[in-house]
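Exercise: predict the structure of this protein bound to benzoyl coenzyme A.
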Amino acid sequence: MTEEKFQKRIDAEQKIEPKDWMPDAYRKHLIRQISQHAHSEVIGMQPEGNWVTRAPSLRAKMILLAKIQDEAGHGLYLYSACETLGISRDELVQQLHDGKAKYSSIFNYPTLNWADMGAVGWLVDGAAIVNQVSLQRTSYGPYSRGMVRICKEESFHQRQGYEIMATMAAGTPEQKQMAQDALNRIWWPSIMMFGPHDADSPRSGNALKWKIKRQTNDELRQSFIDKTVAQAELIGLTIPDPDLKWNEETGHYDFGAMDWDEFWRVVKGDGPCNKQRLDHHKKAHKEGEWVRNAAKAYAKKQELLTV
Ligand code: BYC
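Solution:
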């Protein structure tokens, strides 16, 4: 098949499946994006795992644990989708450990107190949903199907966070202040999750042409901001952006400038927790080696028993 025919299939909204012919650049683009997405799900367990033992009630602890387990599951769906493109899980993890594969910038910020669990669920999962709802229509079949399943779970995560924020905002003045402080710290990093502005996004051209991405970084960021402002107002919290203003003409909120120096510093490895996150992943991966070996040995035994 030629690239022209491939593009015709994309333009006709046909899904591309693992055994279909695809240009090498399409395959590579997907491996990069899906693996970054998978690594984000798994590294994203760390800032939340930090608060499991200090959750303020048994109910809160159970919900947080379930959420973190869901993130591990999302990582697994995504690694599996990525493996259908002809790369192994081992290679993907190695790329993460060697610093060759990225993961979302947001997870390089610390979670300092319980209110941060609220802000992460509300804003980080909220931003992730906006992106992932759009990715449900991505052109690669296994990625698209993974997204459908992930989105169903992610909407519970967003509510878990919003419930924490609403409860704290309606609590004592100190609790409300903690919720506001978490919003102040996590707001800007969460809107940076959508990536650079469209004009500075080198990957967007091909991603949109191949319908891997269905909307641009700026379109998705705007949609998230438009949805989230009213949610903050409802619980009496203030988005920390003095330039945030409803624009009658465009029908969207205008918002202030993001600190792109900070964004690129974090993306390139120099955020507050980059080293900690990666070191922890390497340690956990090494310590889990015996579990992987045992699982492989068990699978092998079952295979021998069935022949
Ligand atoms: N962080 O040309 P661009 C979650 C990189 S986890 C780090 O716009 P693209 C969750 C980008 O990779 C949410 N790096 O790229 C889990 C590229 O570098 P390379 C994760 C970023 O791919 C637990 C360069 O900057 N979601 O849901 O068109 C708990 C230029 O960017 C970031 C996904 O991964 C960033 N924020 O657009 C709670 C969704 N932004 O690779 C929640 C899938 C940009 O050329 N991914 N870069 O060296 C995407 O939708 C797109 O890949 C992005 C970036 C919008 C992230």
